[in-house]
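Hi Prof. W.,

I finally got the Sn-glycerol-3-phosphate ABC transporter ATP-binding protein UgpC prediction working! I wasn't sure whether to trim anything, so I left the full sequence exactly as given:
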Amino acid sequence: MSTIEFQHIKKKYEGNDTYSVSDFNLTINDGEFIVFVGPSGCGKSTTLRMVAGLEDISKGQLIIDDVVMNDVHPKDRGIAMVFQNYALFPFLNVYDNIGFGLKIRHMDKGERDRRIKEAAELLGLSPYLDKKPGELSGGQSQRVALGRAIVNQAGIFLMDEPLSNLDAKLRGAMREELVRLHNQVGATTIYVTHDQIEAMTMADRIVILRDGHIQQIGTPEDVYQNPANLFVASFIGTPPMNLLPGSVRDGKLYVTDDVMVSDAPGLEGYNGQAVMVGFRPEAAKLTGEGIEFVVEMVELLGAEYNIHGTLGGAHVIVRADAGTCRYRAGDHLKLDLKAKDLFFFDPDTGLRLEVNRGV
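And this is what came out:
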């Protein structure tokens, strides 16, 4: 296991005016599973490649186990990497694919055999050691790529969107496999994904990136329940947080200009000002009292429904249990929102307003 420290890391590609990664600061502890998540182009893969030594660091220091790594060759960093493209050798069987790196390092044949078979057993690949990659499923191929990383017994695993080529059902199964594997091997892991579901279900901590800047670092629970800004609020959550333009007038909170939602506890200092108001789909309750809500579409997700509709002309999503949902497009319902379930953001800076939302 290893610790990794990013100190004011920056990356600017030649010919670019702006940094692809800007002032990245983070300490990753021994054995942590850290997920970098964000939209395409946010800098997450670039940051991972700087850890691996595949990209130069423009400014700042990368420190692994108290050693500055900026100029250390990739092979000397004690790192194993798993890419989106499995990059298996089609002419080698599973046994030789897993052990390829050990063979070119001229490791003793007996030790090489022991490591390969241990990794295969751990990953459920023992019955497939004689098969070629063309005979394997996508999930089995991904396990081979993981096996190739495991046999190196590295203290750090780097994974760059390793599940993106798999179908949805297999991705779910492989998420469980990767968490189990991490718990058994114990290596410090950085995992890159654009899929916030992967981030929420796998990470010890999540690093949310946008345009090369860290937006928030925290546990899955923390970034979901306490988003730092509008971007995090809209990015984390499936479906995402509902966000509506609002204002505070005479101690009351209004959204979409004229819909009075509730009293405005903690917002007294914002009287007469605009705010962005957010609430999670599960926080709103469809009852006999409250704000008018017009149903536009109902999505069945198995045990629950996502109910799409309008509130004061703005689109929102409300979640309801499948056993209680009897709604159809065009229904006029009442939406109950409690002040304690509302989030408030500055519409100009996007930053969350720290206010007492009540109980």
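The chain is about 25% helix and 30% strand. Does that look reasonable to you?

Thanks,
D.
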